[in-house]
Design goal:
This protein is of the alpha/beta class. Helix content is 43%, strand content 17%. It starts with 14 loop residues before the first strand and ends with a helix. Bound molecules: pyridoxal-5'-phosphate (PLP). The site of pyridoxal-5'-phosphate has 20 residues, from helix 3, strand 7 and helix 8.
């Protein structure tokens, strides 16, 4: 049986177009505004949480456990959405030293305000995150709680169904003529951080006639890593939704990751400024700014592309030092 879904996001999100952005990127570009899926919980993670939290609620969970970087958008969206359902949240957040920062900013500030219980861990501990999440769950069960573990980024088959359904939503918008004509796009382009978005988009894009190809722009790890991770999640999706048939072709690019995860190069930061000044569209330095920058450098360009704006605004606001000149 296919998992249930909660209605948490404001859908459908707009399909947005700007000729100034076409000029900056170098092709006809439609932007799926998933930065507008919600208020403070906005971004791509809330689409995954519609399925993941439905599963948690159906299992009578009272506490959700998940993990991510210190400025994880996924952790923030989970903490906010869980509160709305009366669930508690336990977060394992990675910092360079395993110690929390002296000031709570951006996503972390929202995690705290939502009352999430937070444990900071260092990168070696984070490498063991699946085991640590299970250990936290075992501890909570011993204390009489009913925990539900969500993997990093909400990236498993259940969470990825959010992006299968997003492809259905886009097909409906194409049929309404909202992107000047009903034809599929040449490619769907998006930032890739844990692979769940890429898997859901691939599983739905060909089936719903949105695009034959998906370009996942890695912001961390490597092309090999994401091909493996996405392939694994696709197998899980096929088990839940066998009617979807073949996935779209996946192209992972890891050429424009920038200096490090969550660190943008000067050229990437300048691109974010240029896009904002020319179009009013706010990108973030961790995900969307790097992904759209990567598309702007790709040769040859697609003729007509769809970019998923996956959110990330709180992460930008936590990087004021990187952007002050
Ligand atoms: C998490 C995230 C992504 C990446 O999505 P994955 O499914 O984790 O690959 C892209 N953009 C933003 C803003 C995100 O928060």
């Amino acid at each position: 049986m296919s998992p249930r879904r909660l209605r948490l996001a404001h859908l459908p999100t707009p399909l947005w177009h700007s000729e100034s952005l076409d000029r900056l990127v170098g092709c006809e570009l439609w932007v799926k505004r998933d930065d507008m899926t919600a208020g403070a919980a906005a971004g791509n993670k809330i689409r995954k949480l519609e399925f993941l939290l439905a599963d948690a609620v159906s299992r009578r969970a009272d506490t959700v456990i998940t993990c991510g970087g210190e400025q994880s958008n996924h952790a923030r969206a989970t903490a906010l959405a869980a509160r709305g359902l009366g669930l508690d949240t336990r977060l394992l957040l990675r910092t360079a030293t395993g110690v929390g920062p002296t000031r709570d900013e951006g996503n972390l500030l929202l995690d705290r305000l939502a009352g999430a219980s937070i444990r900071f861990i260092d990168p070696p501990a984070y490498a063991e995150r699946a085991r640590l999440l299970e250990a936290e769950a075992a501890e909570l069960r011993t204390a009489g709680k009913q925990p539900y573990v969500i993997p990093e980024g909400g990236s498993n088959a259940i969470g990825s169904l959010g992006y299968v359904e997003a492809m259905r939503e886009i097909r409906e918008q194409l049929d309404l003529g909202l992107a000047q004509g009903r034809e599929p796009f040449d490619v769907v382009v998006h930032a890739c951080g844990s692979g769940g978005t890429a898997a859901g988009v691939c599983a739905g894009a060909l089936h719903f006639g949105v695009a034959p190809q998906v370009w996942a722009m890695a912001v961390c790890d490597s092309r090999d890593y994401f091909e493996r991770v996405v392939g694994r999640i696709l197998l899980g999706i096929a088990a839940l939704r066998p009617e979807l048939g073949n996935p779209a072709e996946l192209v992972v690019s890891d050429r424009d990751k920038g200096p490090a995860y969550a660190v943008a190069s000067d050229a990437q930061k300048q691109f974010i400024r240029d896009v904002l000044r020319a179009t009013g569209l706010v990108l973030d330095p961790v995900y969307t700014g790097k992904a759209l920058f990567a598309l702007s450098r790709m040769e040859p360009k697609p003729r007509r592309a769809l970019f998923l704006h996956t959110g990330g605004l709180p992460g930008l606001l936590a990087q004021h030092d990187a952007f002050s000149s």
